Amino acid sequence: MNAPATHYGRFTRFLHWGMAALFAWQFITVGAHVLAPDSALDEALWATHKVNGALLMLLAIVRLAWALLDLPRRPPAVNAVATLGHLSLYLLMISIPAVALIRQYGSGRAFAPFGIPLMPGFEGEIEWMTAVGGIFHGLLGWTLLVLIVGHVGMAIWHRRSGDEDVLERMAGRRSG
Ligand code: HEM
Ligand code: HEM
């Protein structure tokens, strides 16, 4: 029987840090939208919210599939709370853009992220679809922000408290 892994692999790290950067961008667009509505900054940044969100949806699906395949090769969870926290992050990474895309479809408006005609658009509206996004997208989006703050806080806490240095697992020199 092999010894348990001590570090996350390259592809896991690539997805983790790449998506962390895209999430940071996503929340910056939201910040400008909420704090400086209709400003030039808001208009410039908000133009990227849906496209970046659609990219995050795609990456979240790839990441979830990869996590399931890669699970036996990952370092063991530090405790049950960490497992629950990571599961919640996955749930939100999928459901937030999913409800937004459902709303986008239901609005009947065309949507072509990166020029790819994902939704051709149609006359009228599908009300339950726009309602689902209207109720849940922002609510879950803010919940994710709170969880991310907690997640980063816990990573720092584990490092400082001298128990398992989880940051080393995700950012340390040994990859593979
Ligand atoms: C994981 C990706 C995403 C995150 C974290 C995210 C997060 C958020 C947050 C926090 C808000 C602010 C809500 C408020 O003002 O209280 C928001 C608004 C909005 N988002 Fe996203 N979003 C994502 C993806 C998307 C996608 C894919 C679309 C569309 C295709 C989209 C469309 C919108 C729209 C139209 C609004 C303004 C209306 C509303 O508040 O619901 N978002 N988003
Ligand atoms: C500066 C920002 C971040 C830091 C310092 C950070 C740190 C870490 C660390 C140290 C781990 C390993 C935890 C362990 O093994 O118990 C980890 C794993 C994880 N992080 Fe982050 N993280 C950040 C941002 C994010 C963001 C924005 C998300 C998602 C919205 C996220 C989602 C996850 C998930 C799901 C895992 C489990 C491993 C995986 O499947 O990728 N992290 N993070």
Helix percent band: 55-70%
- Supply the number of helical segments: 6
CATH architecture: Up-down Bundle
Radius of gyration: 18 Å
**What gross morphology would you assign?**
elongated
Can you walk me through this structure?
- The protein is an all-alpha fold and 176 residues long.
- It has helices spanning 10-35, 40-46, 49-70, 80-106, 127-161, 166-171.
- It has one domain (10-171): Up-down Bundle (Fumarate Reductase Cytochrome B subunit).
- The model has no long low-confidence stretch (mean pLDDT 95).
- Bound molecules: protoporphyrin IX containing FE (2 copies).
- One protoporphyrin IX containing FE binds at residues 26, 30, 34, 49-50, 53-54, 56-57, 96-97, 100-101, 104, 137-138, 141-142, 144.
Observed structural traits:
mainly alpha; Fumarate Reductase Cytochrome B subunit; single chain; binds protoporphyrin IX containing FE
Entry summary:
The chain is an all-alpha fold.
Fold topology:
Layout (H helix, E strand, L loop, with lengths): L9 H26 L4 H7 L2 H22 L9 H27 L20 H35 L4 H6 L5
Bound molecules: protoporphyrin IX containing FE (HEM) (2 copies).
One protoporphyrin IX containing FE (HEM) binds next to α1, α4, α5 and α6.
